[in-house]
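FYI - complex with coenzyme A, inputs then prediction.
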Amino acid sequence: MTFRIACHTRPELPAIQALYAASPLRRPVDDEPRLTRMFDAANVIHSAWAGDRLVGLLRGWTDGAFDGYLCDLAVHPDFQKSGVGRALMDPLFTEYPQVRWVLLASPLAEGYYGHVGWKPLENAWVKSHPDCVPMPGYAEYQARVAHLAAKA
Ligand SMILES: CC(C)(COP(=O)(O)OP(=O)(O)OC[C@H]1O[C@@H](n2cnc3c(N)ncnc32)[C@H](O)[C@@H]1OP(=O)(O)O)[C@@H](O)C(=O)NCCC(=O)NCCS
């Protein structure tokens, strides 16, 4: 599979919606204002392209000096296991050599991050408002966003 990586260009919202729905990556792709805020606030966006087709995307935040959070990593199923995910992450470490990156792995990627060199944390904690809507199950998410996935 041939692809190219672009750093710090933001794909159009419909392409992001379609890619996340198809991957699948459980993000609020059917809530455009919320998805827009997610990308407005991100200062690290790496994308993978096959021609003009968006086939992979990484979204993250960093202060550039110490902390970094890898928020999203999604690769279209047609391109999975072709090195796209690794190629999207590689620039994190070369561009920001002083940053320690952390992430929350999805159930689908449980074995992935260890395989590509990440170390598990034993001291990670998470807290949110009691009304914060929990992550949907995959079956519910995929049914809800099937119309978007079809466009990826
Ligand atoms: C997880 C995901 C990002 C991986 O991206 P990818 O482009 O398919 O992975 P790569 O091609 O970079 O794989 C690199 C290596 O990891 C392996 N690998 C890929 N997916 C794996 C998985 N789920 N579990 C274990 N190993 C995996 C590959 O076989 C490859 O191994 P090799 O170097 O020994 O040949 C992609 O499958 C995906 O988008 N999944 C759905 C969305 C998701 O869950 N994202 C993660 C959010 S935290």
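The first helix runs from residue 13 to 22. The pocket of coenzyme A is lined by residues 23, 25, 73-75, 80-86, 105-106, 108-109, 111-112, 115-116 (CB under 6 Å).
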